[in-house]
């Protein structure tokens, strides 16, 4: 029997998955932090604030991280995830407004 070395693409795939999970965790934390301060916010304003924070690498005093590129689809995906988890909710009379 010959032992083959581990394929490089498998390691690269694992690294990509790990990077995507970290990105999702950061986005979820940003969304939660912004809504904790604002209490309620229109979904469009929330998306713009999260994207801006990602580009600057910080949100408010005391929280700094490496800046990275994110898109509105990434943020909206995390918003849906947080809605499904029960961390966020929509106003019944105005479903485009999110509350923490």
Characterization of the model:
The protein is mainly alpha-helical and 100 residues long. It has a single domain, classed as Arc Repressor Mutant, subunit A (Orthogonal Bundle), CATH 1.10.10. Helix content is 59%, strand content 8%. Helix 1 crosses helix 3 (72-85). The protein is globular, with a radius of gyration of 17 Å.
Question: Can you identify the CATH superfamily?
Answer: Winged helix-like DNA-binding domain superfamily/Winged helix DNA-binding domain
How helix-rich are the residues, as a percent range? 55-70%
What is the first-to-last residue Cα distance?
58 Å
Helix- and strand-based class?
mainly alpha
Strands ordered across the widest β-sheet: 1-3-2
Assign the CATH class.
Mainly Alpha
Q: Beta-strand level of the residues, as a percent range?
A: 5-15%
CATH architecture: Orthogonal Bundle
The strand count comes to: 3
User: How many separate domains make up the residues?
Assistant: 1
What is the element string, with H for helices and E for strands? HEHHEE
Number of helices: 3
Label the overall shape.
globular
Q: Enter the CATH topology name.
A: Arc Repressor Mutant, subunit A
Averaging pLDDT over every residue, what do you get? Answer: 81
Main sheet summary? 3 strands, antiparallel
Provide the low-confidence segments as ranges. Answer: none
**Over the alpha carbons, how many angstroms does the gyration radius reach?**
17 Å
InterPro entries: Cullin, Cullin_neddylation_domain, WH-like_DNA-bd_sf, WH_DNA-bd_sf
Protein name: CUL9 protein
Domain Cullin neddylation: 19-96
């Amino acid at each position: 029997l010959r032992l083959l070395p581990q394929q490089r693409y498998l390691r690269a795939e694992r690294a990509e998955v790990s990077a995507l999970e970290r990105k999702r965790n950061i986005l979820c934390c940003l969304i939660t932090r912004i809504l904790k301060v604002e209490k309620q916010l229109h979904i469009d304003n929330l998306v713009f604030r999260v994207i801006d924070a990602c580009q600057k690498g910080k949100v408010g005093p005391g929280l700094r991280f490496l800046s990275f590129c994110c898109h509105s689809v990434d943020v909206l995906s995390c918003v849906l995830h947080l809605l499904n988890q029960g961390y966020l909710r929509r106003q019944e009379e105005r479903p485009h407004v999110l509350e923490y």
